[in-house]
Each structure stands twice: as C-alpha cells, then as structure tokens.
Design brief:
alpha/beta, about 60% helix, elongated, two-stranded parallel ribbon, about 450 residues
Length: about 450
C-alpha cells in the first residue's frame, strides 16, 4: 500500500497580494468563524468551578448551589429585562404588544446559557422589532428593554467566548447603530447608539482584560505544575545517583572478595583438576570484568564535585557515633535495640544507617529543640527502623528551617530498592514519625 502526497500549488495571484489585503482576508475569515459559522450550535454553560478559595469553604449543598450561581444571575437579569421591556413602551404593561416586547428583550438573555453566538444575533434582530412594537417610544435604535438586553448579551457572550469574538460583536453593533441612525433615525428625537457603543466598549474591555488575566494565570499554573514535576524528577534522579555511588563501594568490596578467593582457591587444593582451575580462572576473570564495569558506571553517575570516600560505607555498627554527633548538635536522642543483633547484608545496613541519619537531620532542621527516639528491631525476615521526634518546644529561640525536600524522597528510594515498606507522617502530639521495614531473605546453609 503506497501513499502519495500532493503539494497544493498556490493560487494564482496569492503571491502578489499585499500584506494589507492578507490582513483583511484573515480578519474576514475570523469574522466568519466567530459569528457566522454555526452560530446556533448548542454550547451549554457549565457549572462554576468549585476549586476556588471561597467555594471550598462552603458546605456541600451551598457549594452545589454556588456552582449554578452564573445561571441564576443570567436568569435574574432576563427577568429584569422582561419587566423593563414591558413597562417602557408607549402603553407600559397595558396591552399584549408591551408584553411581547418584553419577551423579545428577555429571550436573547436566556439563550446565552445554551447558544451564545446565536443569542447575539437574536438580540440584534429583536432591537428593531422592539422599537416597532413600542410605537411611540422616543429611543432609537434600542428601546430601554432592548438596550439592557443587548448590553447583557454582549457581556455574557464575551465571557463565554474569546476576546476576538467580543471585538467582532462590538463592530457589528457599531455598524447596526450607524445604519439605524442614518436610515431610520429621522423619526426619533433621541439616538442612544453612542451611549451603547461607549458602555459596551468599556464593558467588553473589562471582559477582555479578564480573559487575558485568566489565560495568564492558567499558563502560570501549568508552568508551575511542569516545574514542580521536573523538580521532583530531578530530585529523584539525584537521590538515585547518590544511592548508586554509595552501593558501588559495597558491591565492589564483594566482587573483590570473589576475585581474590577464586584466585587463591586452586592453591588450597593439592593437584587440583584442570577443569577446576579453569572454572576458578573464569570466576576470577568475570569478577575482575564486573569490577571494571562498576568503575565505569561510577564514572557515569559521579558528579563533577564528587569525591570518593576515604573510609568504607557506614553500617549500623557506626550508629552510636552518629548519635553522639547529633546530641552535640542539640538534639536529645535515645536508641533502643530489640531482637537478636545479627550481621545483615551490607546494603541493608547502609540503607538503614542513611535512613536514620536523614530522619535525625530532618528533626534537627524542622523541630529544633525537640527530643527523638531511634528504634532498631531485628525481627524474623528483616529489620525494622523507627525514628520519631516530639513537637518543637514553645517558645523556641531557634526557628525551623525549610528543607529541599530530598530527605523523604531519598528514604523512599532506598526502601523501594530493597522491596521494603515505609510510612512517614506527623504524630498526634505534633511530632513526626518515620517507620521502615527492610526485608532480609534468610540464607539456609544447605542453599549456600
């Protein structure tokens, strides 16, 4: 199956058109699209968003009612327009013509709820009809009811569409006002075309400014959402890079032990078989190759300012030294160890140490002067870690400092790497608690 693309050749004379001609052509296309293309299409007005600062504070039923507040306002204006149109004729409210004139004024306002562009054309068409029914009225081209109706329709439709549509509606209104004054304005002693154009221009200008401000707010909100997402993603990548750098030393240590043991094993056996020597040689070669690849990986994830640690990575055996440093910094902390203390995989102990370290740092940063408690539980199937701090004392001379938000993210990454579970959140007394479980798979001697 083949697909053939045909390039449409430009029409003769398009390249010779002046910029003014193309500008006018684009303007006419905009006018046709905004006011003439399917003007009576069904576009119902939706409920007011309930996420505003005022609506969020209202109870459930009142919030639901407030969501329909724009519809109620339009309905109230339509009722007022009906009354003004019926009571402003030559015989106010005295015959059916006055009531019909009021209905002609009110219908376009109601139609703005479902067919906004069509309501504009209805309002424009109802203006001369209202004047005809009112007979002896002295206003032209808008009777009082038609004046209120058309001004309301312009504002509501402009709110529901876009600024370009508002400009076109005002332009058509101006053409109608000038045409009505020139052709039919002689029998009327007062023309309200100029007041209509001035008031509508001022109202539509305010609506357009609202549109611009609303669009700018939406763009700022979208940009802030993207920025927050990118910041969270960057934080996550930074934490994963830090964890990878730390685990490099752990894995490299184990691979070095494998390589040394594989090299020394043949010398511990008298007259080892050739197959055994080749097997140990292969193990050593693979271990050395793995170490080489680890160094390359570390080079990729290492930052420009990264310095390789001189000491081995810490474990739970170094936790007492950490608590001493934290106490010197002003945090009262106690440690409780439960269960049978045993040696755990180095990656588990490193993660547990870093989690305790970060939790205590958060306590120092966010609750200066509070006390903390570190619980280490050696349980069947894993290691439990719980760090909880009390509320900050009041009054406190030291104010809490905001963090970068990396702490909790780094903890969760370490726990997720080990397929563990973690909960973090405030306590009932105003403190904060971090609880972690790191699973450790038991190795049977027969499986070793």
């Amino acid at each position: 199956m083949t697909e053939t693309t045909h390039q449409q050749s430009p029409r003769a004379g398009d390249g010779d058109r002046s910029p003014e001609y193309r500008l006018a052509q684009n303007a006419l296309q905009g006018l046709r699209q905004d006011l003439f293309h399917d003007p009576f299409a069904y576009r119902p007005m939706g409920p007011r968003p309930a996420d505003g600062p005022l609506l969020r504070r209202l109870p459930g039923r009142m919030r639901t009612a407030a969501e329909r507040l724009p519809h109620a306002v339009v309905g109230a204006i339509a009722l007022i327009t009906l009354m003004v149109g019926a009571l402003s004729g030559s015989e106010p409210g005295g015959d059916g013509r006055a009531l019909l004139a009021g209905l002609l004024c009110a219908v376009p306002v109601v139609v703005t709820l479902s067919r906004p562009v069509g309501a504009f054309w209805l309002s424009l068409a109802a203006s001369p009809l209202t004047a005809l029914f009112n007979g002896g009225g002295g206003d032209w081209p808008w009777m009082p009811g038609a004046f209120v109706s058309h001004l309301t329709v312009l504002v509501v439709v402009a709110l529901r569409t876009r600024p370009r549509t508002a400009v076109w509606m005002w332009a058509v209104t101006a053409v109608y006002a000038v045409f009505g004054d020139i052709v039919f304005g002689g029998s009327f002693y007062y023309s309200n075309g100029a007041p209509m154009l001035v008031l509508s221009a001022f109202a539509l200008l305010l609506v357009c400014l609202w549109h611009v401000r609303h669009t700018a707010q939406q763009e700022v909100t979208a940009q802030q959402t993207v920025t927050a997402h990118e910041r969270s993603r960057r934080t996550l990548l930074e934490e994963r890079t830090t964890i990878a750098r730390e685990l490099h030393d752990v894995v490299a240590h184990h691979m070095s032990v494998v390589a040394i043991q594989a090299e020394a094993a043949p010398y511990r056996v008298e007259n080892p078989p050739e197959e055994l020597e080749r097997a140990f040689a292969t193990i050593r070669e693979n271990a050395v190759a793995a170490l080489t690849e680890l160094r390359r990986i570390l080079g990729v994830v290492r930052a420009e300012d990264y310095e390789a640690p001189d000491a081995p990575q810490p474990t739970l055996a170094d936790l007492d030294a950490l608590l001493v440093n934290v106490r010197d910094a002003g945090l009262t902390v106690e440690k409780v160890v439960t269960g049978a203390v045993r040696e755990l995989p180095q990656g588990v102990e490193l993660s547990a140490y870093r989690i305790v370290q970060e939790a205590l740092s958060n306590s120092l940063r966010h609750a200066p002067g509070a006390s903390a408690r570190v619980e280490i539980g050696y349980v069947l199937g894993g290691l439990g870690v719980r760090v909880v701090n009390g509320p900050m004392p009041e009054p406190s001379l030291v104010k809490p400092s905001p963090g970068a938000g990396h702490g909790i993210t780094g903890m969760r990454e370490r726990v997720a790497m080990l397929d563990g579970g973690m909960t973090a959140g405030p306590t009932e007394d105003g403190g904060y608690e971090v609880a972690v479980f790191l699973p450790v798979t038991a190795v049977n001697e027969g499986d070793a």
